[in-house]
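input
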Amino acid sequence: MCGIAGWAEEEGRVDRAVIALMCEQIRHRGPDGHGIWISPEASVGLGHRRLSIIDLSDAAAQPMANERGNIQLVFNGEIYNFRELRHELEAAGHEFKSQTDSEVILHGYEEWGADGCLEHLRGMFAFALWDGGQKQLLIARDRIGIKPLYYAELPGGGLAFASEAKALLAHPRLSPALDDDGLRGYLAYGYVPHERSIFRGIRKLRPGHALRWQAGRVVERRWWELHYQPQALDGSREELVAEIGRLVREQVAAHMVADVPVGSFLSGGVDSSTVTALARENVGNALSTFCVGFDAGSQDDLHYSRLVAEALATEHHTMQLTGDDARRLLPTLAGVMDEPLYDPSVLATLVLAGFARHHVKVALSGTGGDEVFAGYGWFASQVRYARQRSRLGPLWYPLAMAANPMVGLLRRLPFGMRAPGALKLVGRSQPERSFLVRGFFDSWGQRRLLGGGVDSAVPDGEHLWVHQRTWRPDWPLVPAVLNHDMCSFLPDNCLVLLDRTTMAHGLEARVPLLDHGLVEAVFRIPWQELSSGDGEKRLLKEIAAQLVPHEVLTRAKSGFSPPFKVWLREGGMAALASELMGGALAEDGVIEPRFVELLVRRRALRRWNKLWLLIVLEWWYRRWIRGQPVPAAAGVG
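output
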């Protein structure tokens, strides 16, 4: 696990000092070492920050070259099948100088080419490879999007890339200007989706994509895509559970490989408890486990995590996050997250990562269990609404046609901000209904919020573009909704959250439930065998039944989220609303404070979600657009 950065120029020379500065911005990703390679003609430079996990010797340092020195690599991630690939490559005549997984990418590229190398890799990765013979730069990202990769086509020519956007902003030809499309994406979804970023001129390389830069020309392509290909079961339900359980067990074992201590995040939910139980099978001594609780709301996570820890005999560590801690962490969080992220669990995960880093260097996470095994409440809501629509029979379509214009009229009334909720049942399209179940500001709300300060000409339906892009009308509803989660919410929200918060502390997080082979196997199961459409993760719970206490299987789903709604209602946190109305966003004309006041006074959605989304945006804007300094990332307690 590391941080990477680089710069290529068709004409002109790259500057080592610039690459060094880019790498310094992501020092937290690799505090154990650093390296820079510049091509002989100075047309390409690669930089690396190292977090030593496998092969701690200098032989594993990067940038790393092949035997002839004509191919150079910088790599972030872990390749879990690297030993098998190494044996195959050695049999083909390749010589290795280290014991690290990074080196299989170099020799795999030589042996199989770009496409073949990518297809062989099993793990999480983002890498850049310079082929001096072809004068070609290849950057690529893993199938699921576990590891991040940003890039920018530079003004005046050239290409720069980095693990985080903040490193690109250190380049002299880039500046932290607000991107209107990225802003609208955040307001709609609570994260910046797909290839967009919040910074003008900077883009993400999407999961399962590769980009080739050659002679100043950029070609991006998709090299992996998830398919729903249901196959009739060959055996019984018990055999299906055993087979998927075997895959989960194999992946947890593969994710335990490291030359440093490995622990596990344990919230006491089904996902983290299953991963922890299987991890415990692979260690001879006590496994370190970690959980964060809160000073308000439910204490279920602490209770159930202790229950599991006692059953598995782990070395369990807990701490508590308070509302005061959360308020104090907001500026720090803005520095860690160089793109705004609504998800309140980012606070808890940042604290948890800092806490765990005192004990281990690698932590397993159950992230991905809900997306793969259908565990979200909004998933169940959409299935329920679909069933209700089916009961309406032929009345559904005329009701939908009548409801949409009526909502436009209702919005003019005092209670109109809640009017779109009616469309959850009779919205005209599945993307529209999906957004209403889980989205934030639609096009109408964005126009009101943005006023005339930025590009406020938000097209009707702009808020639906991600749902429209990921919607699969040829799939049944259950896998189609899962596809959206896998293609957008998971990589752009959940995995961004996990990567930034853990790497801020130099902690490697691993996600065995997101192995692509396991994901593909689940998507070959008829959806009726996976889920009843109730968000209960029936298949995963059957796998977990022999591994964890029964109480974990029957507990109510809570997520790993602080009680931010309670904190917002308390005096100290509620004051942030007033600060927002007179804050940097309002001063610079980005948002319309009168709309924010209306939002607060009427408590739109009655759950404070939109207010929290804007508070996060405010602190991000102060740090990255206004340039106000913030404290370094730090644990609490």
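quick obs: The two ends are 26 Å apart (CA to CA).
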